[in-house]
Amino acid sequence: MRLVQETMFREVVLCLLCALVNKSKSRQLLEFQWLKTDNDELMCATSPPNKTLSAIATRLQCVNRCSDGCPSSCEAVNYRQSNQQCEMFYYVPCSYDLQPDCANYQVGLRRS
Question: Which helix (H) or strand (E) holds 12?
């Protein structure tokens, strides 16, 4: 469990660093925060995604794809580790649930 938490922490830090480098010209930093219940269980968006990518090996790759979105960044992503899918939302999802092996990350902009 501790190894999973350390890995998730490293992925979030790396994601923030990548977003900082990618967005330095626009002076904006993308932040990704996962949604959790009060019991620290990861939530998954159940609203329909706008786009689903397959063969995405890590959460970091998923959120990087989100930040590189065209014409703009997405608002949230679900990462499904077991089938390596990245579900992108170009709106803030309105429904969530606990689903095994799925985590939802909300995207925010922070001015530097």
Answer: helix 2-22
Amino acid at 3: L
Closest to 80 measured CA to CA, from 60, 63, 56: 56
Give Cβ neighbours of residue 2 (< 8 Å, ≥ 6 apart).
none
Q: Which two tokens stand for residue 95?
A: 């429904």
Neighbours of 46 (CB within 10 A): 14
Classify residue 69 by its DSSP letter: -
What's the pLDDT tens digit per position in 35-83?
899 999 999 999 999 999 999 999 999 988 887 766 677 899 999 999 9
What tokens appear for 105 in the block? Answer: 């990350």
- Global pTM? 0.70
